[in-house]
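The passage that follows is intended for readers who have already worked through the single-chain material. We present the inputs for a multi-component assembly, then the predicted structure in tokenized form, and finally a short commentary. You are encouraged to pause after the input and sketch how you expect the pieces to fit together before reading on.
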Amino acid sequence: MKPVIFVLAYLILAPFVGALLDGIDRIVSARMQRRKGPSLMQPFYDLGKLFSKEMIAVNNVQLLLNLSYLVILMIAGSMLFAGADLLMVLFILSTADMFLIMAASSDSSPFANMGASREMLQMMAYEPLTLLVAVGFYLTTGSFQVSDFLTRDYSAVIWMPGLLFGFMFTTAIKFRKSPFDLSTSHHAHQEMVKGITTEMSGTTLAIMNIAEYYEMILLLGIFFLFFVNSTWWSWIVAFVVCALIFFMETLWDNVSARVKWKTLLYSCWVVTLVAGGVNILILMLIK
Amino acid sequence: MTMIPFLIGIPAVFALIFPFVRDQKARGVIVYTGAGVIMLTTVVFTARWIADGSQVMMLYPETETVDHLMSVGDIALMCLIIYMGAKYRRIVPILLSVAQTALLLYTEFTTEVAAGPHMVVDWFTILMFIIIAFIGGFICIYTVGYMKGYHSHHKDVQDRQPFFFSMLFLFLAAMFGLVLSQNMIWMYFFWEITSVISFLMIGYTRSEEAVNNSFCALWMNLLGGLGFAVAIAWMAKVSGTVQLQDVVSAGAMLPLMCLALAGLTKSAQLPFSTWLLGAMVAPTPSSALLHSATMVKAGVYLLLRISPAFSGNLVGIIVSSIGGFTFIMASMMAIAQNDGKKVLAFSTISNLGLIVGCAGIGAEETVWAAVFLMIFHSVSKSMLFQSVGATENTLGSRDIEDMHGLIIRVPKLAYIMGIGIAGMYLAPFGMLISKWVALKAFVDSGNFVLVLCIAYGSASTMFYWTKWLAKLLCYHIPRETVKDVTRKDEYVSMIFHAATMLLLCLLLPLVAVWVVNPIVQELFGNAKDVISMSVLTTMAIMLVSIFIVPAAMFFISRRSHRELVPIYMNGINEGDNRFFTNSFGEKEHLYLSNWYLRFEFGRRHLRIPSLIIAAAALVLGFCIVIGGAV
Amino acid sequence: MNKVSKSPWLLHYDASSCNGCDIEVLDCLTPKYDIERFGIINTGDPFQADILLITGGVNSQTESVVKQLYSQMPDPKVVVAVGICACTGGVFKECYNIKGGIDTVIPVDVYVPGCAARPESIIDGVVRALKVLDEKQAAMKKDGR
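Having made your guess, compare it with the prediction:
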């Protein structure tokens, strides 16, 4: 019964929570820049507007691929919240991303294609660490099942601080935050228009945004797993820490400038090796 | 089991027919018949074996005449190599060939070895049979159509099709023999045949490049053959037996290391990967045959057979490290390639690296993953080679850049290629489940380096496949229309492969229970459930959803009204989306290229270091083993 | 809730401006003026824009570009001509290569004169454009599109 509730809650609430978080993020960012910023509900207004616009498209498949991206992301998230296999969740997450890349490159548009290429590069940059995170959970708890993580007496983060750091580092890619927002960005100034979303308009873009909200909650869910254990108060701690991590991502977004792709790839791989690899090595030796 | 001689004999007999058939039509008919008969005999044989209770069968304890015939065969092969070496002035293959044949004959005639069965039939053999017969058979069928197209494109190449078909069928015969053999001397004989035939097939065009590459393949495979011969000699002298299973049970390090060398060369692991890349000069069917179903699988087959002996010793560590290292380096080098066949070659090497890495650990789980990888790799790689070959005949190029918008130009080929690519790396297709198990197994066996290899390697694998897939699916009005010249028999083969691929993914749980588990059981004596049924079932359900979701979305999205507008090119598009206005106010063609990261992942940067590291590991292994063994 | 005026995204195009007005447009994004207060985002992408903000008069090179960008924006959409050149052609009006104001090529909804237009007047013009945007959306709904 519990998994069903979780999954339903995820499917229904994730876009709302994600949009709210986006709104908070925009306000916090604005305050960091000594601006007032938009209203909290701005992401909802944006979505509403996008759905009400005229449907224009550059080809007939983009909408379908974007919808597939959304649905497969929802499946991946549901599996996480149902307590299924973490490794499988991550694999399906990257399959979902594939559909986004296909959607962007389906139109032979120079900007969208560049964005798609960069998105692939970003995937290549963060993929090793996500796999290592799953391995870390497996070594710590003896299982890949998310539901098993929740029943331990200790929080996983005790055994995998390096992986947590690495995951925070690479998640900036997934949140599309500076300095790793190469393929597309929430910010106005982009060297290649809107990158991967250049050819998306109205409903298509709205679907993409909703999918991003689902993904955001999914990632925060993984952060959550680092801290949660069998005690009830660990859930509160995990919530607070997740909020803190989200704030730190926003902070990082505001204090750093976009990097070149080489810096992105090499820094992510080095962090994966140093923070993730060493953590895994220690886990393997003492577990 | 009276059928066994037929299994090897039928393709061999067909191979003998081709030189006398000059008529193209008749030859086609014979190939169809041959492939059909091979598949039929395999099915009947498998069915009867299963009906008999699917017991492990040891056969032919007394085979004096055949032994002598094989010795004659070994000498004949040596003579052929000497002749070819002398003709093209290559000394290394001659030396290697003479050395190993002499060593083998000396051992055979001076050492008494315990009698034992010469052939074995078990689940692993049966699996290899099916792979060889069906994938190999369909490749033969594909070849009929392909070679017609090939020779109409390449007028400069002498038409030696009878020879080519002979070699194809002979190769299948040798592979059947190889997977059946339990006696190492027999296995060695078939092993040498595959080396020589691959050499002949790579040199098909007789261009300078082809000759060079074929000799490269020859000497590397002969080096492996030498390792094989040393292993046989050692086992015969020290243990007095030449049974493959005794190598496993004895667990002596030197023969293991030598057999590992043989397996590594055959499966084109670093530092021997050069031959496989060079082999791409051959016509595509031989690439498909050599690099998907047969040749390279022979190496992996040998390693998997002896993998229980690798568990936890030095040889196992060396083999698995080389495998893991090959996996990551080859996948990185594949990023910088724009030639379709080169990408496939690197991906073959890289996937074989993963299989070898699994075999080197030698635990139930890893072997389970390795067998799975082998099945899926055979099917999807053979399919990819065929579709690239067909695309090359149609477009006149196998450059991935030229496949831009293939989905519009030649949709059928694009779909087949797409399924093949998806099968190679996407969740929830089969390859991924094997990677999943391999990762888990590596963690369980505490092999930190391999865990890192698989984490990084799968990331770079994803990159090069994704960009290819994206290239195929680009919507782009073609510059000129192309006519799909792919013939029916080529499509028959490719569609068969695509259907097999999808079925395999759907029936994943059944394949695991019926085929893969028994193999692990036979190799290790016990089999645990490597992956829970629920996970496998989830995978199958996921697969369905991967198809259903876009299909459903297709219908949903079709209902919406849409106005098509030109793509965004800073407002300077001209006409359709193919041109833009340049700074001189003139019309300029839009050209989109993939991203190859040549300066970072190019072969010229990574090749030499990776060769040196892998060679050093191998030499180090030999030094320690020889130092410790003597 | 889905009033388009709550989240107007704008596309800024320089048809032939001297960059005076363009600097002022960018000024609007700075903390002092902060047009994000109104939910306005300066996107570079016509597919995602609701307001086309053009500076400078149209010349023979930019004419086709302006037309194409306008055609790539989904309805409802409005055009704001910023600066006197965009409104009428300004001092360049009689030049051999100048076609005139933006309205010689595409329909303009709001004119913001000035040389250069002040940020306050640009914001004012955009806010006036929002009303037009809402009207257009209502008209669109009425047409049942």
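Commentary: Chain B touches chain C at residues 565-566, 568, 570-573, 585 (CB under 8 Å). The longest strand of chain B covers residues 57-59. How closely did your sketch match?
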